[in-house]
Amino acid sequence: MQRMLIVDDEPVILDGLYAFFQKANFQDMEIIKAYSAFEAIDWLNSVKIDIVLSDICMPGMDGMQLIEQIMDRWPRCKVLLLTGHNEFDYAHQAIRNPCVVDYLLKTEGMSHIRAAVERALTQISEENDFRYQAAWFRSKLPRALPQLQRQLLLDVLKRTDRHDIASLQEELDAVQLPFESDQLVIPVIIRVEEWNNYQSQADRSLIRYAVANVAEELLQDKAKVKAIDLDAQVIACFIQPQEELHSHMSTTQVERGSQLDSWNQTLRFVYGTLESVQQSCADCLNLSVSIMVSEQAVEWNRVNQAIAQLRLSVHESPGLGMEKLLRVNIQDELPYTPSIMNQQGVVALHLEQIKQRITAGDREWIESFHKWTEAAKEGLQDPFFRMKTYTGAANVLIEVLHELGLYESAMEEISLSRMLHFDIHTGWSDLVIFYQSAYEWMISKRSDARLNDQSQILITIHHYIKHHLEDDLSLTRIAQEVSLNPSYLSRWYKRITGKGISDYIHDRRVERSKELLLGSSCKMHEISAKVGFSDQHYFYRFFKKATGCTPQEYRDQKS
Question: The HTH araC/xylS-type domain covers which part of the protein (predicted)?
Fold first, then answer.
């Protein structure tokens, strides 16, 4: 999804541009308006903006100054400048700025302005196509250095004591990772929800590498970043600000304030850009992913714990299997730490596939389960192989129960404590029956939970809209309420309900307008504000188009 921010201090012009582009039916583009450069900056601080259409001459901060603020936050944003006069000096400055794609006179008309927006969208699309072509990814297949970098970061995940990090800077430098070991790090995980057409392990391996490159390419504009595979479904990103932030005792208060600003700016950039990572995966790779990001930067020896909490968080909110976009408040304590790598031999590989399919709610898990039982049965005569197989099966079951948040329920509903009595003398058939029934129970629980999740998300969306008609009802704001990607939310809502969110908002505004017209003595400008219209005349046109009469006519007829 793309976002266009329209900025103008003249309400008549701004409302006209906003209404025009709302009706222009640009596919998957959200339109936002700001009545001043300062309001625009608030939006730039809140969400990622792809296109800015701005007046040049505004009080307090003009368009050229606004460009600097835009570039500081979103370097890839395309800017279109509007002016009422043919001012050569402004035009000359604007053309020299690489983010300005056009300089327009307001007198040129809406068709020229629309054409300029279309050119900006085309430019964004071409840049994405160039960056994410499959051939481009194949040419970037990892060599020795990326593998060494990945191995070091996986090793860091196992280090939980401060003294384990003592030599980290030397190790980072040796494999040319750009991080500072004495600085905090922002952990992010990207989880594949739907593989779609990528069925072979070779394809999935390449696509995981492609996802990592998408994340690195988009985030490296204003951050130091490295993305690696954690397992066959999850990619982890490690992020620090681009500039070095010194943490020595001699740091002055001014320097500490500057460091805090840099961290806040980096976090803001990361939060906004991760939405683009999701969108690029969907558009360029045909891949559905969820992203979980820490709300706090953490020390290197706490990264493993933070990633464990990020992995768990996807199951702690409604919408499992959807394209989630979650900010997670990392806690100091965690009751368990999931295994990161657990693939040893053919039996372990099949067991890992069972885990992935159960976690994803894939009903084809039984195929992997049968392969696991057949592969394991061949080596059970060896007591050490038998012990390793039994232990591995128990570990994976407990891990999946924790990851799905079903551990406590399993203790009560499937007699999980029976596992405590399993040893190498337990019959293989008894063990297979127990694990098959346990996994069938989990799949059943997942199906029920998914239906409940969808209902809960719809209830949350509708409740928010009904009680905030006078507030911001942009797709971005509603998506934040349910922790979903805005573009995904739009598609999902239409698939579930058969109509768009904007249609539901429209209906609720009409409904609420009628209630206020008949059930209150509110004046027209008050009703207009209560249902989300800053312009009373626009409210009149909206109501008449929806009902066939003006608000006053409706009140008079019904009374």
Answer: 459-557
